[in-house]
Specification:
Radius of gyration of chain A: 35 Å
Helix content of chain B: 40-55%
Number of strands of chain B: 2
Number of domains of chain B: 1
Number of helices of chain B: 5
Number of strands of chain A: 21
Shape of chain A: globular
Number of helices of chain A: 27
Largest interface: A-B, 20 and 20 residues
Radius of gyration of chain B: 16 Å
Strand order of the largest sheet of chain B: 1-2
Largest sheet of chain B: 2 strands, antiparallel
Oligomer: heterodimer
Strand order of the largest sheet of chain A: 2-3-8-5-7-6
Order of helices and strands of chain B: HHHEEHH
Structural class of chain B: alpha+beta
Number of domains of chain A: 4
Structural class of chain A: alpha+beta
Shape of chain B: globular
């Protein structure tokens, strides 16, 4: 039976002269133990044994003479061995150092693992560098990552010369029938060339035919590896079979390799071709468009051409495209959100501060240590060690701490990432793992941090006046003026960094509280939501759709525990905010950007009652607003204010929405946008007058969770072929939306607290050290009649100066950091005075405590014994 | 070398194990003897450390055996006690005997301390 891998690795580290016998013994004993005590115990035992072997018989060159390695390597190994002995001789000190390093390196590793995915790890697309993403730039809301419509995509594809090929995709869902219960699948609808352009690998089949995306083409589908394995049992004969998608037969033409299944791409069950009809609605912008640049064409050149085409489109189709422009982005930019660079820069700043703080703390510790080792160092140099040799020895010793801290830091990072994965919903976090890049980064930190925290003490304590150190008791006050000054600088820096992080974390926490507590305008606590997808082949006509919803809502309204039920084609704050052009009768439009626009929702009669949105003027929809009657609309207060001046003036007003005339019959209260910003102008039209195929169900109940089974049963009873998905209380959906923000917020808080603890313990250590060095002086003062309170005051005054400087610098630095973060500070001013005052008071109090405790201990000393101390 | 170098407790254990094992003394068997008889949870590595020291002092001698399959094709290193080792052991045990003579009743109540590490 072979030893566990960990034991074998550890045995590689042992002295080659005993390795064979030791390893043989362990393997023999392991085999016997496994038979008697069970394998698990035997494994644990053998690893511990191997660890002991690595410690007690550390690796040595077989012939420790000049023949192996040069002098540098030999002394390095000597110093390393000495370092290991030092670590073992002072367990408490070592534990503090390793823990501090572990926290700091762990924090940096976590953040690096984020950056690794965002910046370093290759995307599963071929040559992502030569891909360019074409985004629409929205004149109304200023978004610059907008999708394009099908006709726009076709126009761009026909006119752009910078791209070899250009493809489009959009996320949607399809209903699968004919294989057991009706199921809703996550689908990516793509142009036929996308799979080739991204060079995605197919494990089965040949992919889409080139004309699969032309209107009227026969249905084809490519399935994901995950779906194929999980739902189709990895059927090798799947290619050529037919799946009923949205009631339409689609031939399976391929299975994608699993390489593509990362992040939110991993949610896709099936890939189906778009139907690229030039007659599709030009304002319906849903496609994410990207293309392969021709060799030698830069993103900037492609961007210039795309802008020209956008200008041409704007003049050719003023109704839908006036003011719109477009840009070309690189893959990395396209994959991340607009805030991501800011968040990453902040996180990186914060964790590097934590690392600096930890190093400052350790430098202080090592400095105090070094003062105690002056004698040893003096003897070394007296015996002929050069200064560089001694410095090298001290650095190598601390390398042992760096390596231990790095290993422990990896553990901290792994734990932290597991925690993050457990609480975050975003697929981004599921992608994070400790891979080769992360290991390399952590290794680098483990090697570099000892240089950071050991170089100053090493240089400091080996200054040429070290002859002093040979004299017995030659400690002088607090290890010399220079060392004291270094310590003061370190303390000021530490306090400053901690204050900066505290300011930032406090502001971010307030922003998070504001964003989760912001009144959304919807009563989310008593609202249950679900999505319904009516199969098109059964509910092909508006009348059939209308009829179905009518029946379902009637059933639900009369069910127990349900106060109101409604449907909407858009869940506010969760779904996207597609905007439509609005023409208000009699309103002047001097410039293109003054054109009116609104977010449109199609809702049923009791929508406002179900969502808990007040109707502030006029009336909600009624059963009278049906097909054949004059088309009516409700608008929200924001729209009424913007285009008519007030709710009262809006009532009865006429306008047209994407060319269709409507009359305002009511004005509703505002709801926030998905970004929790002030409301967009919104138009609500009646689902009786414009039935929607897919819709979300809104059910108001005092206990939404309890109402869920009732709702499910009613839907099933009415038509079991209608798939329901995503049934959950609205509050839960909103919380989930914010979960990533909470994760990031908690990270900032955790780092700030870590920084505070490091700074406070650093201050404590420095004050205790200087107090202990001054025991004799204190004794003299007390003997000469100084009161303990006088001494306390004197010593605290000296620290107070340092604290004040650190605090001042930190508050200024914190403001700089906060301004950098201002896009994240939701409804919080980056210079919120209460935050700065609060941080100053909190840090002052902690600093006072951290210095008062050691000072009090020092003043409590009996002057006689203090004087006798030598 | 001093005429009668003193032996640490663990060194005594290892030498006693070698006496018991005769020509079958090697890492695992010595380790097992000490674990079984002395109830000490020691590591194989520390057994080797001590054997190295004993060999250096001339109290034990080693010989390399044949590779066996149960050890993954690795060889055993056998250890045997040497005359000098026997003398030192006898001396140590006799000293202990003399020190404890007549003390048995008092010692019964004492809880044995646990010097897991041998000092050297």
């Amino acid at each position: 039976m072979r030893l566990p891998i960990a034991a074998r690795v550890l045995l590689r580290l042992t002295d080659p002269r005993v390795r064979e016998y030791l390893a043989g013994d362990l393997e023999e004993a392991f085999t016997t133990q496994a038979a008697t005590d069970g394998v698990a115990r035997a494994r644990r035992w053998s690893v511990l044994q191997a660890l002991a072997a690595a410690v007690q018989h550390p690796w040595k060159p077989v012939t420790p003479t000049r023949s192996i390695g040069d002098g540098l390597m030999r002394t390095f190994l000597q110093d390393l061995g000495f370092g290991v002995r030092m670590v073992r001789r002072q367990p408490t000190f070592s534990l503090v150092v390793v823990m501090t390093l572990a926290m700091a390196i762990g924090a940096n590793t976590v953040i690096f693992s984020f950056a690794n995915i965002l910046l370093l790890r290759p995307l599963p697309l071929k040559d992502e560098r030569t891909l360019g993403w074409v985004f629409a730039v929205d004149p109304h809301r200023g978004g610059d990552r907008g999708p394009l419509s099908i006709p726009e995509f076709l126009d761009y594809r026909a006119s752009l010369t910078s791209f070899e090929s250009i493809a489009a995709s959009t996320r949607t869902s399809v209903t699968l029938t004919g294989r057991g219960d009706a199921r809703r699948l996550v689908a990516s609808r793509v142009s036929a060339n996308l799979i080739d352009m991204w060079a995605l690998r197919l494990t089965l089949g040949g992919g889409f035919s080139p004309s699969a995306d032309t209107p009227g083409a026969a249905g084809e589908v490519v399935i994901s590896d995950r779906y194929w394995r999980r739902e189709l049992a990895g059927d090798p004969a799947i290619v050529g079979q037919t799946m009923m998608l949205d009631g339409r037969p689609s031939t399976v033409v391929g299975v994608l390799a699993p390489d593509i299944e990362i992040g939110n791409l991993s949610e896709i069950d099936v890939w189906t071709p778009l139907s690229l009809s030039p007659d599709a609605a030009r304002e319906e912008r849903l496609l994410r468009v990207n293309g392969r640049l021709k060799p030698g064409v830069t993103h900037a050149q492609a961007g210039a051409e795309v802008r020209q085409v956008a200008e041409r489109l704007a003049s050719a189709h003023p109704k839908t495209n006036q003011g719109w422009t477009a840009r070309v982005a690189r893959s990395r930019d396209a994959m991340t959100g607009a805030d991501t660079p800011v968040i990453m820069a902040l996180l990186a700043t914060v964790v590097s501060f934590v690392l600096l703080l930890a190093c400052a703390n350790l430098a202080n510790l090592v400095l105090s240590r070094a003062a105690g080792r002056r004698r040893e160092l003096a003897i070394r140099s007296a015996l002929g060690a050069s200064r560089t040799r001694v410095i090298r020895q001290m650095l190598t010793e601390n390398l042992v701490y760096g390596i231990c801290g790095g290993i422990a830091g990896l553990g901290v990072a792994a734990g932290g990432l597991a925690l993050i994965r457990a609480v975050a919903f975003e697929p981004f976090f599921a992608m994070i793992r400790i891979d080769r890049n992360v290991l390399a980064f952590t290794g680098l930190l483990a090697l570099l941090t000892p240089m950071l925290f050991a170089i100053l003490p090493a240089v400091q304590s080996t200054r040429p006046d070290a002859g002093e150190g040979l004299k017995d008791g030659g400690t002088r006050s607090a290890g010399g003026v220079r060392a004291a000054r270094s310590r003061s600088v370190l303390i000021v820096a530490q306090l400053g960094l901690a204050v900066m992080l505290l300011v930032l974390a406090t502001l971010l926490v307030q922003a998070l509280r504001n964003i989760s507590g912001a009144p959304t305008g919807i009563d989310a606590r008593r609202l249950l939501t679900a999505r319904l997808d009516l199969p098109a082949w059964r509910y092909g006509t508006p009348a059939a759709t209308s009829d179905y919803y009518e029946q379902l809502l009637t059933r639900l309204q009369s069910s127990q525990g349900i106060d109101a039920a409604a449907i909407t084609d858009r869940i506010p704050m969760i779904d996207g905010e597609p905007i439509s052009e609005v023409t208000v009768d009699g309103r002047a439009v001097p410039r293109p950007e003054d054109r009116a626009w609104a977010v449109k929702s199609t809702v049923s009669d009791r929508y406002f009652a179900a969502a808990g949105i007040a109707v502030v003027a006029g009336r909600p929809f009624s059963p009278e607003d049906r097909i054949g009657r004059p088309p009516v609309a409700l608008v929200n207060q924001e729209m009424a204010r913007r285009y008519w001046g007030s709710a009262d003036r809006a009532l009865g007003a006429r306008f047209s929405l994407a060319g269709e005339p409507l009359q305002v019959v009511g004005v509703s209260a505002d709801t926030l946008t998905g970004e929790r910003e002030a409301a967009n102008p919104e138009v609500f039209v009646s689902s009786r007058q414009r039935p929607a195929k897919s819709a979300a169900l809104f059910v108001r109940a005092s206990n939404p969770a309890a109402a869920a089974p009732v709702v499910r049963a009613q839907i099933r009873a009415l038509d079991a072929d209608v798939p329901v998905s995503g049934m959950r209380p609205m509050q839960e959906a909103l919380d989930e939306e914010l979960s990533s923000s909470h994760v990031l917020g908690s990270l900032f808080v955790a780092f700030a607290v870590l920084a505070l603890v490091l700074a406070a313990s650093g201050l404590y250590a420095v004050v205790s050290y200087s107090a202990s060095q001054r025991v004799k002086e204190i004794g003299v003062r007390v003997a000469l009649g100084a009161l303990p309170s006088d001494i306390t005051r004197m010593m605290l005054r000296q620290t107070a100066v340092l604290v004040a400087i650190g605090l001042g610098l930190g508050l200024v630095g914190g403001r700089v950091l906060a301004i950098g973060a201002s896009t994240l500070l939701y409804r919080v001013s980056p210079s919120d005075p209460a935050t700065y005052a609060g941080v100053a008071v909190a840090l002052g109090a902690i600093a006072f405590l951290a210095s008062y405790l050691p000072v009090r201990r020092a003043t409590a000393i009996d002057p006689v014994s203090a004087l006798r101390l030598e | 070398m001093a005429p009668e170098p003193s032996l640490g407790e663990f060194e005594q254990f290892v030498l006693l194990a070698l006496v018991r094992l005769g020509d079958q003394g090697y890492g695992v068997s010595i380790h097992n003897e000490i674990v079984r008889r002395a109830g000490r949870d020691v590591t194989v590595a520390s057994v080797y450390k001590t054997l190295e020291r004993l060999e250096l002092k001339g109290f034990a001698a080693s010989a390399v055996g044949e590779p066996t399959a149960e050890r993954g094709g690795r060889r055993k290193k056998y250890f045997r006690i040497q005359p000098a080792g026997r003398r030192a052991l006898a001396h140590a045990l006799a000293s202990l005997q003399r020190m404890t003579d007549g003390l048995t009743p008092d010692l019964d109540a004492a809880v044995p301390a646990d010097p897991l590490r041998d000092e050297a």
